[in-house]
Each structure stands twice: as C-alpha cells, then as structure tokens.
Task: inverse folding
C-alpha cells in the first residue's frame, strides 16, 4: 500500500475518448486526485463520479485535476460518462496494472460451483492525492462514495495552503 511521501507510480491509460493520459502530463502543472472505483454504472460508483463532476470547477480553481480509474473499457466509460453527464476524465485500466501499482487490486474468493471456490480480482474504492512534484500526499483506501469528493476538495485546498 502506498503511503504519504511515496512517489506516485507512473501510469499511461486511455480515457473514454481514446486519448492516452499519463501521470507525467500533470507533473509540475497541477495536483492530481486519482480515484479508483470498482465498476461503471453501479450505484456507489455513480454517486462518486457525479459528486466529483459537480465539483470539478472547484478542483481546477484549487489547482487540481480529477481522474477516475476502473477496469471497465473505454466504450463503457463513454456510455457511463454520457448517461450521467460526467465531467471527470475516466481512465480504463483493463489489465489492472495501475490498480496493482497503487495497491487497490485484491483477490477475493468467489463460489464457482457447489463445492468449488475460485478467486477474482476486485478493485477497492480508493483515492490518492498527488502533488505537483508527483509525491503522494494522501492515500485513502476503502473510502465511501457519498461525500468523498467534498472531503477531497478540502484536502486539495489544504495542500494549496501548505505547498
């Protein structure tokens, strides 16, 4: 698991418009709120994405960009964005490379048949605040969806006051 003070792991992921988004694009320019969520169009993930989208202008005024990441493909992200009028950029991590680098991908046991168990990889709802230098300032694992965007906005504003 990442800790405050760690360097943010690099990533290059496509967004819903097929543009590749990389951590390096933001270094030196702005802070990053990087949030991982389990799945497009589920109730909690929709609440979280809508709340981040509603505050996107405030995040930008505070000097941060917001990026949402899930294992859904770019087509799913496009439909999710359009269906709910989302403003945040949604990045596709189909192979879970970024999720593993940030420590949010976990194996879970799943009942496959009457007496058989197997595992599947799940993504834990988590958010990282990364400063302009690419250093993790907050690593929040297992966050709740409702109200989380407002909390992160306050953290971004506090980061601006100290850094």
Result:
């Amino acid at each position: 698991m990442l800790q405050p003070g760690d360097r943010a792991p690099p990533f290059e992921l496509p967004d819903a418009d097929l543009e590749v988004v990389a951590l390096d694009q933001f270094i030196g320019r702005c802070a990053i709120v990087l949030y991982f969520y389990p799945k497009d169009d589920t109730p909690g993930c929709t609440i979280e994405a809508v709340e981040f989208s509603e505050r996107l202008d405030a995040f930008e005024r505070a000097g941060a960009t917001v990026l949402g990441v899930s294992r859904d493909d770019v087509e799913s992200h496009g439909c999710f964005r359009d269906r709910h009028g989302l403003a945040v950029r949604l990045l596709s991590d189909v192979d879970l490379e970024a999720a593993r680098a940030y420590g949010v991908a976990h194996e879970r046991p799943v009942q496959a048949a009457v007496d058989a168990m197997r595992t599947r990889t799940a993504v834990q709802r988590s958010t990282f605040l990364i400063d302009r230098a690419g250093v993790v300032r907050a690593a929040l694992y297992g966050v709740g969806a409702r109200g989380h965007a407002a909390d992160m906005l306050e953290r971004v504003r506090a980061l601006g006051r100290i850094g």
